[in-house]
Design goal:
This protein is of the alpha/beta class. The protein has two domains: 144 residues, 3-Layer(aba) Sandwich (Rossmann fold); 106 residues, Rossmann fold. It is built from eleven helices and ten strands. The strands form two sheets. A six-stranded parallel sheet has the order 4-3-1-2-9-10, with helices on both faces. Strands 6-5-7-8 form a four-stranded parallel sheet, with helices on both faces. The longest helix is centred in the first third of the chain and has 17 residues. The radius of gyration is 18 Å and the shape is globular. The protein starts with 6 loop residues before the first strand and ends with a strand. Bound molecules: D-glutamic acid. D-glutamic acid binds next to helix 3.
Length: 264
């Protein structure tokens, strides 16, 4: 394994760009390859076995391109598949985890809300996380039904998205939540609307920046960090409709990018 090899990052769609942004900012010398598995999103509607199969195919795609490390930029996929991926592939694999521990540390009311896909909330990995770190607070789970689809459609600010968010968030506010965990990598793109609904007194947490720090740590530990003189960059792939992917990725990445077809 050489330090000049790329790092693979993937999600069911464009949500993982909220993680990729932090990774690119923290590790600008690294070559990054991003895969949006748009043809199979939302992962929340697949079985854990189906999600694992998608993760394996994407991991093989990255390994074929010489990846030295992998970031599963999707909470749902991490919950369903990361243990088995780590067993079967030898490169460092970093996954997402809802920020329950920092939320419990930050709460004043003692009530935290976790907004995530049903797949994440129903997973054993998540229930272990809550058991381990959430016992000193009341942890309320809220499935974010429909939100991934709104983000994928580029619908960040419509009445429909606002209404949907209110349905999910107002019951949390009524129960005294003062820290809201965004447990899905699509949701940070809805933060302006979420902030509008929850007001200024609720802390909103996501784990994108923590994942970038963890990736850096793992690269250093394995002596895999790219030389500071290297020209880093990002190559984008999507299994979904290319024109739509290209316009969405360009919009969220802040400049025109080329998205190539992800072929298995
Ligand atoms: N971004 C994924 C996550 O973090 C969304 C999963 C989905 O496609 O349902 O959970």
């Amino acid at each position: 394994m050489s330090s000049q090899q790329p790092i693979g990052i993937f999600d069911s769609g464009i949500g993982g760009l909220s993680v990729l942004r932090h990774v690119h900012d923290l590790l600008p010398d690294e070559q990054l390859i991003y895969v949006a598995d748009g043809a199979h999103m939302p992962y929340g509607s697949l079985t854990p076995g189906e999600i694992e199969e998608r993760c394996r195919r994407i991991t093989v795609f990255f390994i074929d391109r010489g990846a030295k490390a992998l970031v599963v930029a999707c909470n749902t996929a991490t919950a369903a598949a990361i243990e088995n991926l780590r067993q079967d592939f030898s490169l460092p694999i970093i996954g997402m985890e809802p920020a329950v521990k920092p939320a419990v540390e930050a709460t004043g009311s003692g009530v935290i809300g976790v907004l995530a896909t049903s797949g994440t909330l129903a997973s054993e990995k998540f229930s272990m996380l809550v058991k381990r770190f959430g016992s000193s607070a009341e942890v309320i789970f809220q499935p974010g039904l429909g939100l991934v689809e709104q983000v994928e459609a580029g619908d960040f600010d419509s009445d429909k998205t606002r209404k949907l968010l209110k349905v999910h968030l107002l019951p949390l506010l009524e129960r005294g939540v003062d820290v809201l965990v965004l447990g899905c990598t699509h949701y940070p793109f809805l933060t302006p609307l979420i902030r509008e609904i929850v007001g200024r007194n609720v802390t909103i947490l996501d784990t994108g920046s923590a994942i970038a720090v963890e990736l850096k740590r793992q690269l250093e530990k394995n002596r895999l960090s790219a030389a500071t003189s290297s020209a880093g960059g990002v190559q984008f792939f999507s299994s979904g409709e290319i024109e739509h992917s290209q316009s969405m990725v360009s919009h969220l990445w802040g400049r025109n990018v080329v998205v190539e077809k992800f072929v298995e």
